[in-house]
Amino acid sequence: MSFIDKYEMVCGVETHVEMATKTKIFCGCSTEFGGEQNTHVCPVCLGLPGVLPVLNKEVVNLAIKAGLALNCEIAEFSKFDRKNYFYPDLTKNYQTSQYDLPICKNGWLDVMVNETNKRIGITRAHMEEDAGKLVHNGETIMTSSSSGVDYNRTGVPLLEIVSEPDMRSIDEVLAYLEQLVQIMDYAGISDCKLEQGSVRFDINVSLRLKGTEPFGTRTETKNLNSFSSVRRCLEYETDRQAEALDDGEKIIQETRTWDEGRGMTLSLRSKEEAHDYRYFPEPDLMPLVIDRDWVEGIRASLPELPAAKKARLQSRGLSEYDAGVITASKAMAVFFDQALAKIDDAKLLANWVMGDLSGLLKTNGRSFEDSPVSPEQLAGMLTLIKKGDISGKIGKNVLEEIYNTGKDPETIIKEKGLVQISDEGELEIIVGGILAANEKSVADYQAGKESALGFLVGQVMKATKGQANPGLVNKLLKEKLVQ
Amino acid sequence: MTMFKSLEELHNRLVKKEISCVELTRSFIDHIDSVDSQVKAFLTVTADSALIKAAEVDKKIAGGESLGPLEGLPMAMKDNMCTEGIPTTCGSRILENFNPPYDAAVTERLKAAGAVLLGKLNMDEFAMGSSTENSGYHPTANPWDLESVPGGSSGGSAACVAAREVPFALGSDTGGSIRQPAAFCGVVGLKPTYGAVSRYGLVAFASSLDQIGPLTTNVRDNALVLNAIAGHDPKDSTSVPFVKPDYTQFLENNVKGLKIGIPDEYFASGLNSDVAEVIQKAIRTFESLGAEIERCSLPHTEFAMPAYYIIAPAECSSNLARYDGVRYGYRAEADDMIEMFKKTREKGFGQEVKRRIMLGTYALSSGYYDAYYLKAQKVRTLIKQDFDRAFEKYDVLLSPTAPTTAYKIGEKSDPLAMYMGDVYTIPVNLAGLPAISVPAGFVDGMPVGMQLISKHFEEGTLYKAAYAFEQNTAYHHQAPALLKEVR
């Protein structure tokens, strides 16, 4: 009997999102990623004796915004607490976080898994400060002779979003995480650069026999930062637990770490060693009283979120698949919407955005955020195609030209003389010439060889450097060949 | 110069060019040189930088520029306030050689006011203690009797002002650490309203209780110093945006109709009868000046001490977690990292600090939080309410500052006995109120302090009452015998 038939997984996720503020949560230092080590630091984020935190209001704005996007209740009264533990990359040896009165709670997200809707509960979302980064002077922590700490990340604001243990399959987990990240991206909560660690996942998973109610003993695997790691980790961890259960072993409630290289989870610490965090209210910060006008103001500023955007694009004639692809990335969706404002043909636009332009950007290692082709330029070019001024084929060249030179499509067409020849009289003369020069093909066609037509079209296009209106060429050729 | 009358007098002498700022500064440095070997109030004397600063002030005077009230006047600060590039040890070995890269808000403000820093003052380690015997370096002596303690934890601050080594000093008060040593040393010490003076750069002991305040030889000086250091600071979230008055405007010799409550609980068992007598006499002085005196009750007073000894250690256990020998201060030699942490803390911290870290860690640990910390916070609310009710009727509450006068160094070896010395000051910190200790008389040649307490941000009322008392008594004119010998 396979695992799938026998066990059901129960999974909940804690997601740490680095919020996209310019300055840190409790001081004015920059949150920019990748600065030279220990250059974005001051006495406050270094936790020197005597310093005091001052809450960055923008962090609260973003936390409220995230909460609203996740259908949470926003607390009227919230506060910060100290979470006391020993941690080498946290200078104060306590983390300023939120304990019993988080800013957001009781939310949910609807995700589509195998064409069914699944609602995942959000228990809470709270604000806290990030820790620094250990830099080991060796291959691994065990073999390094010394370790340094880079405090640039210390004090970068985090939002910790805790889900309910509502997920029952790896697909559900991934659907939830992908949508969560998408929303954080859309709402501008975070830059969501997973590869830079700006979103990290802690995965809580347990197994239970199918059809039974009580949860099994869970493990928590910390600090995963890609969807593929989450998938592999869950595959490994559920297999491991299933094997252990099959062998009659007990699962130990413990914290584990994901070893990307070896593709396995490893034990970090068990519950017996679990920390007593000795939470208590942070005496250096005043409680947060959040009036409803503040919340409503933020609600009004919430952008259209992915689900709504997808529905709207479908109503404009896109297939579910196309709408899904376009809304999957905020940058692409924003680009699409800006172009759509200039050209009322969602389907045509989608083809070009998802096809040629995506391809061009990908080949050049760029994204829609820094696309050299503006939405207006793409829309302008598509308008020319629709008007019949240029062919789709020429369009491809024009797009490349826009990409390389930044010039507007009209300018390029004019400069290169790419305007489509749609003048029937002019084309008739050219067609006549081609027919005269290719008697064999004419004979072939008239003898029933359809492919000869294609050859003749090609000759016309060649003669006109591709500028002939292909529809018109076809029509004229057919008319003449029948005569 | 050591027998200066007031900051105003020193200011006038500078302005009238009777003395240069360098001369003034040097005379105080000389005095420190002659008495501090006995008083031991200083941990660091910053003579060189003080003389440079003084020369700058002299240039200003020569240029005909006007001087602010504290400009060019010497002062010193308790060693738990950060001073850029100048050692700030908190009286602890664990912060030996710690030179902060930044200034505390009060340091900045005093610099801006032009005051001349003469040095950093001894204290009970991390401000934990009531006698300055718990300094990691050496005990400070009481200038009135070199065998007695100066009180604590701002013992260095009180003793150096009493010995006239500086005309004013800053202390910090978590459970009475300005007022009790002020009482023991016969000087004026104010613990301002929580939130009135920025704590930015004050090395934290118990964050929700700590407050910085001035120690001076008289009430007017105290108001002048508060003028310089009080006010909202955006770098301290607990600092309150309030309209800061000129505190000297309250110094009118008039308490007619002032309603003074005398809390029964502050005159119960434990109060030395001679001290009680001095305070009763002080009450009669107020009465004779036309104040309305009435007995009152603060019923939850007896719970203040136990609540304080939960809350303060709880906060300290967290605040002191950062001292591990890694980034600054003292580091013990050891074979591995964990051993290094352990040894650093074992050797770097003294007994009292370790005791409170352990108490606080225990009180916050899971399973005990509700029974201890949460309950203590509830008691704190009840104590605040006691005061709120009292201040519906009274402008000021009057009590002894401490139950006894200064005791001998080494006399109190039981920490609990020592804790009892703060029994009248602690409730004020729990409620976040302002309170002042002023000299009220002597018992066997040792000073006795009287504590006046008022509503939040009513420091002006305290100054008004204290000033009237001072103007009608002569205790503050007396100086320790030590000074007569020096002269």
Principal-axes shape call of chain A: elongated
First and last CA, distance of chain B:
10 Å
Largest sheet of chain B: 11 strands, mixed
**If you average the pLDDT of chain A, what whole number results?**
91
Strand content of chain B: 5-15%
Oligomer: heterodimer
By secondary-structure content and strand pairing, the structural class of chain B works out as alpha/beta
Count of DSSP H/I helices of chain A: 16
What general outline of chain B do the C-alpha atoms trace?
Answer: globular
Number of continuous helical runs of chain B:
16
Task: List unreliable stretches of 5+ residues of chain A.
Answer: none
Specify the helix fraction band of chain A.
40-55%
What percentage of amino acids of chain A are in beta strands? 15-25%
Brief summary:
By secondary structure, chain A is of the alpha+beta class. Chain A contains 16 helices and 16 strands. Chain A has helices at 3-6, 57-69, 170-186, 227-246, 292-301, 306-315, 320-328, 330-340, 346-363, 375-387, 392-405, 409-416, 424-437, 439-446, 451-463, 470-482, and strands spanning 7-18, 73-74, 77-78, 81-84, 94-97, 104-113, 116-129, 133-136, 147-150, 157-163, 199-209, 219-224, 254-259, 264-270, 280-281, 288-289.
